[in-house]
Design brief:
The chain is an alpha+beta fold. The protein has three helices and four strands. The protein has helices at residues 18-28, 82-95, 111-114; strands at 6-14, 41-49, 66-77, 103-108. A four-stranded antiparallel sheet has the order 2-3-1-4, covered by helices on one side. The chain is elongated, with a radius of gyration of 16 Å.
Amino acid sequence: MSRLPFYHLIVYVPVTHAQIVRNALAAAGAGRIGHYDSCSFSMRGTGRFRPQKGAHPAIGKTEKLEEVEEERIEVVIPATPKKKVREILAAARKVHPYEEPAIHLLPMIDEQGFL
């Protein structure tokens, strides 16, 4: 019997929008661990980017290097069908202010599934 995979989702977002993204992720079903929900981890850092011609940046101007205080938000997506994973990703993108948000989805081996 095959088990559905867990995923580790990482989203980089300006600090000003971090709670909005966390709320959207939790509402969509990410961050559930056992009898807990809305579980996440965040770290602050500096994001850097240069919007190119044709971009429509939420922050900064085209052709100018920009630095933004951002949060790295990490959540677990529990074993769920891919359709639900796509819904969680769509929920994050819907509230994210960036035109091209940095979102990473990694397959994860859950500790209990490994042992």
